[in-house]
Amino acid sequence: MATIVFCSVNKTAQSTVRRCSMSHLKRLASSAASHLTLSPSSSKPLTLLPGSRWLSRGCGVRFVSQGTAGRAAGGRTRKGALALSGAAALTAAVAGFLANADHFQRADMATKVPRAAAEKEREQEGDISQRCRGFMSPPVTDIGVLQGRSGEMRTRMEMLIMETQADFCNALQEVDRWQRNEGGGGISCVMQDGKVFEKAGVNVSVVFGNLTEEAARQMRSRGKVLKGKDGKLPFCAMGVSSVIHPKNPHIPTVHFNYRYFEIEEEDGTKQWWFGGGTDLTPIYVSKEDASHFHNTLKEACDKHHPQYYPDFKKWCDRYFYIRHRGETRGIGGIFFDDLDSPSQEEAFDFVKSCARTVVPCYLPIVRKHLNDSFTDEEKAWQQVRRGRYVEFNLVYDRGVKFGLATPGSRIESILMSLPLTARWEYMHEPAKGTLEAEMLEVLRNPKEWV
Asked: Which PROSITE patterns match (predicted)?
C-alpha cells in the first residue's frame, strides 16, 4: 500500500472532506477514452471516468503493476498504446500573449472561442463553496474570504491551483495541516513507496507578506522595476507544483508548475504576472511518448497563439539546462515566466488551458508502460539520471531558490521535487550504441518532437 501524506493550512478543516465530481471535468471524457484504469488487477481500481475526478474507492489507493514490482531479467517490452483522443477536450481556448523581450513583442490576437463560452465559464467560477467540495482539502484561504473577493485574480488563481491538485492527485489518506507564521501556508499531497510511483507530490502554496531583499533581488535581475514603500514590498504568491518519480524506468518523470505573483507598490498600484510550464524527463527515449506529450501541449498553446508553443518549447529547453553537465534535464515541454499581457484575463485563460493538460499529456504514457519489465542495469541508469535531476533542482531551479529565500517556508514541500533515491557514479558514461547513449545524445542536443 502506498503511503500518502496530505498537509494543508486551514485550521477549520478537521473533518473529512467530501470529494465529488465537478462539472468542469466533463471535458476529460470523450467517447474514445471513457475509462482509464491504472490498477487493472486491484479489486478497487483507480479509474478516470467521464465527468469524474481522480478519486479512490476507499481511504487508500493501490497501484498494481504486474511484472514491474521486482527487477525482471527479461528484455524491454513496450505494451499498450497512447490514448490521444481525450487531450483536446481538456484545453480551454481563449487568447493570451507574452510580453518578454527575449521571446516576442506585444501584439494583438484573436480569441478562438465564442465570447459566450468564456463568459459562461467565468459564471461557473463564482460558485466557490460548491467548487470547494471537490478539492482534496479546503483551500488555503478561508472560503468566506474567497467568496468575499470572488472577482479578484488571486482568488480565481487559488481556485484553479486547488482544482489542478485535485485533478492530479490519486487519494487522500491522512490530513496534517501546516501554517506559515508570516502569512499563508500550503497544501501538500505526497505519496511515497507506491507500487508504480516511488515518490509523487502535488503541492499547493499560497503565501503573502513582504518580499525579502534576496527575493526582490532575484526579480530585479529579470528586469522587474519594484518600488517599495519604506523599504517594504507587500506580495502575494501562489502556485501548484508537482513532480512524479515512477519506480519503473520506462515510465518518465513529469513536472508541472503554474503560479501567480502580485506585488503592491508604493503608490498602491499592483504588478502581476503568471509563470509555469510542464516538462517530461524520460530515462529512455520513446519518440511516440515524446510526440504525444509535446503535441498535447502544442494543442493547448495553439488555441491562444501560434507562436506560444515554439517559443515556450525553446524557453523550456534553455531553462531546464544543466550547464555544468552540458545536458538538458529531460526532453522539455513548455516553460514561460513574467506573463503579464495583453490583459490579466487573457493571461489567466492561457494558464487555465495549460493546467488542464497535465492529466492528458502524462497519464496515457503511464498506462502504456505500466507493465513493462526492466533489468537491474536499466534501474541503475534511472538512478544516475535522477542524480542529474537533483543537481538541476538544487543548483539552478528558480522556484527552489525563491522558496528557500522566503521566511517561514516549509522545507519539506520545497524539496518534495527530489527523488526518493538517486545515484552518482564517478565519471559515468554509457557505452556507445546503447539505449542509454541514445538518451544522452537527445539530452545534449534537444530535438523537435512535433
From this structure: COPROGEN_OXIDASE
**pLDDT higher at 379 or 39:** 379
Could you tell me the pTM of the whole model? 0.71
303: its cell numbers: 488555441
We report the CATH number of the domain holding residue 218 as 3.40.1500.10
The boundaries of the domain holding residue 135 are 3-444
Is 103 considered catalytic here? Answer: no
Please report whether residue 176 resides in a domain: yes
| 9 found inside a domain | yes
Give 187's pLDDT tier (boundaries 50, 70, 90). low
Q: Which of 24, 245, 255, 294 is catalytic?
A: 255
